[in-house]
Design a protein that fits this description.
The complex is a heterodimer of chains A (124) and B (273).
Chain A (H helix, E strand, L loop, with lengths): L1 H33 L12 H8 L2 H27 L5 H35 L1
Helix pairs in contact in A: 1-3, 2-4, 3-4
Chain B lengths: L5 E8 L9 E8 L6 H11 L19 E4 L2 E4 L12 E5 L6 E3 L2 E2 L2 H9 L9 H5 L4 E2 L3 H5 L12 H5 L1 H5 L6 H11 L7 H8 L13 H5 L6 H16 L11 E2 L20
Parallel strand pairs in B: 1-5
Antiparallel strand pairs in B: 1-2, 3-4, 3-5, 6-7, 8-9
Helix pairs in contact in B: 2-7, 7-10
The chains are: A mainly alpha (124), B alpha+beta (273).
């Protein structure tokens, strides 16, 4: 049942990425027109706008969800590619453990970075 | 292409008992009208190389025995006219992605093992009715359409030979077994989805399919295994999300006995067995 579960989550992670990619495009490329998320400066990556967005819990959560979805989606895809090299059972198991541990480490580090940026922004 | 005067068959030969590596051997034959690749192989065996080995049976694209790698594509030798290849040189090799037993004979056992593991038969709880039918399982024309094209598969192995995933991943069941599994999952008379899912939800299932579509291109019977695999993926994803509920297998209905034959339709011949 594991492959059925992983594939389904792979698809769901793809959908999450699609939604957040749309949000990213809206904020970075359309918001010059809309001005919702960039209240301080017309340019989306201006320091004042970045700080303003980082103060919002919505963005902190968004960064963490996107990070999790992108890591899972990408690492599962990488796993499938590497499995097609004709690996033995031991190598497959080792690869599963490596990718899972690596993914979790990156997720924890990235989540901490997103949370810390939000906390820092609130002090500015 | 206009018919050539002569056709050269370049055939890959391999006898594991005496050879380490396959070799190529050329045979030139005069072209005869309507010559198929299988006709050429027969002529070569009769006149030049009695030891040449291949599988064939029906000679009419029905049995699926003579799948071969002809001019770089998996095809049925009996169904391939020499003129349709557009060249006077016909290269013939055994189907890729299989071990070779000898010359043009591939070892198809792994394919049929994967096929059997996916339970390609009707599974129902009313086994007594299946053994001793008292009526017929009802099936509407629409329900029949859901799987009909997949029943045309002749298990020739051409799709397996064309599949890039089968070439690289020995755990993957391959297009033929998966398409045949879907054929029964999609059959309204069947109730075996849960049983098949125990295999399909694992590494043997459809997950490694890249949707290259080569299997559907190669199929000599026009079956679309790539479509079956994508439908199967959708079914399994919905099942994981608890959005798929297999309908109850169709009910038994009494055999129709009230229909009278139209006067212009002759009776069927008497049974011979």
């Amino acid at each position: 049942m594991r492959d059925q579960r992983l594939w389904t989550w792979h698809l769901l992670a793809g959908l999450v990425i699609l939604v957040f990619l749309g949000l990213h495009m809206g904020i970075m490329h359309l918001d010059v027109l809309l001005g919702i998320f960039n209240p301080k400066d017309p340019h989306p990556v201006a320091w004042a706008n970045v700080v303003e967005r980082a103060k919002l819990g919505f963005f902190t959560v968004s960064y963490i969800v996107l990070l999790g979805a992108a890591l899972f989606h990408g690492l599962y895809g990488l796993r499938n590619i590497l499995f097609e090299l004709g690996l033995g059972a031991a190598a497959k198991k080792g690869l599963n453990v490596t990718l899972t541990v690596g993914g979790l480490v990156l997720f924890v580090f990235g989540s901490w970075a997103a949370w810390a940026a939000g906390a820092l922004a609130k002090t500015l | 292409m206009t018919a050539p005067a002569n056709v050269t068959f370049r055939i890959r030969r391999f006898d594991p008992a005496t050879q380490q590596e396959p070799t190529w051997e050329d045979f030139t034959l005069p072209y005869t009208a309507g010559m198929t690749v299988l006709d050429g192989l027969r002529k070569i065996k009769e006149t030049a190389s009695p030891s040449l080995a291949w599988r064939s049976s029906c000679r009419m694209g029905v049995c699926g025995s003579c799948g071969m790698f002809i001019n770089g594509h998996p095809r049925l030798a009996c169904n391939t006219q020499v003129t349709e290849l557009g060249t006077e040189l016909v290269t013939v090799a055994p189907l890729p992605n299989f071990d070779i037993i000898r010359d043009l004979v591939p070892e198809l056992r792994p394919m049929f093992d994967a096929h059997a593991a996916l339970m390609p038969h009707i599974i129902r709880e009313d086994t007594a009715e299946m053994q001793e039918p008292t009526g017929e399982y009802f099936q509407s024309p629409h329900e029949l359409e859901q799987f009909l094209q997949f029943t045309y598969c002749i298990k020739c192995g051409c799709c397996m030979a064309a599949c890039p995933t089968v070439a690289t991943d020995p755990a993957y069941s391959g297009p033929m077994p998966l398409a045949q599994s879907h054929r029964y999952n999609a059959d309204s008379r069947d109730g075996g989805f849960a049983s098949r899912k125990r295999v399909l939800a694992t590494e043997q299932g459809p997950w490694k399919c890249h949707y290259a579509g080569e299997c559907s291109q190669a199929c000599p019977k026009g079956v679309d295994p790539a479509r079956a695999i994508q439908l199967m993926k959708r079914q399994l994803v919905f099942d994981y999300l608890k959005l798929y509920k297999q309908p109850c297998p169709s009910k038994v209905v009494a055999k129709v006995t009230t229909i009278t034959r139209r006067p212009d339709v002759p009776e069927a011949p008497a049974k011979t067995i």
